[in-house]
Design goal:
Elements: H1 2-18, E1 33-37, H2 42-55, E2 59-60, E3 69-85, E4 91-105, E5 116-125, H3 131-157
Parallel strand pairs: 1-2, 1-3
Antiparallel strand pairs: 3-4, 4-5
Amino acid sequence: MAAARIPAVLALCCTLAACGFHLRGEASYAFTSIYVNAPGAPALAAELERALAATGSARVVHVAKDAQVVLDIPSVADDKEVLSLSGAGGVREYQLTKRVDFRLHDPDGGPWLPPGEITLRRSYSFSESEVLAREAQEERLLKEMQTDAVQQLVRRLQAARKPA
């Protein structure tokens, strides 16, 4: 029985290796230190600083003049709009949107990345009889969207290069 499992495990390992799957390792950046400037989004900034400190080769500093690069996040906007209505005119679905604008530059203003925007969308169904549950779902979706935005920022920072 155990002898039959060995080829199956080897086949599974080869399949995973062939598809390009690999664990997310440490991120490498072209810069050694970063300052996160997000005055309008302290929760996003804190999560981003934790992610950068935990996964990358750059250290997070708390003073802009000590950093090799500055990540400006001038705006983070959450929006909620009606996605569909019922036959009686009641709301059936909402769509949540999170927009994060960012700019990476050195202390002198030289761009390391062009200004960018991360836009995330999630939809959820709504029922008048489950208002409290839907509010909790909306909060959870917004938190997940923030985490997704942070992960996308971390990946985009890996593409940053020193201006020529």
